[in-house]
Amino acid sequence: xxxxxxxxxxxxxxxxxxxxxxxxxxxxxxxxxxxxxxxxxxxxxxxxxxxxxxxxxxxxxx
Length: 62
Hints:
This protein is mainly α.
């Protein structure tokens, strides 16, 4: 049962993200939701990437 849930969760999550991204930037709340989604993605990426790699990339920038 757990595997079935995991395989269904990814397409549902991607569909929700696509829906959020394709919304027009008419209201302030929509723009804030897009920024919040972007921050969550970046935070998730930084938490999953090895810390040595992130540190090396930051040292190359500065």
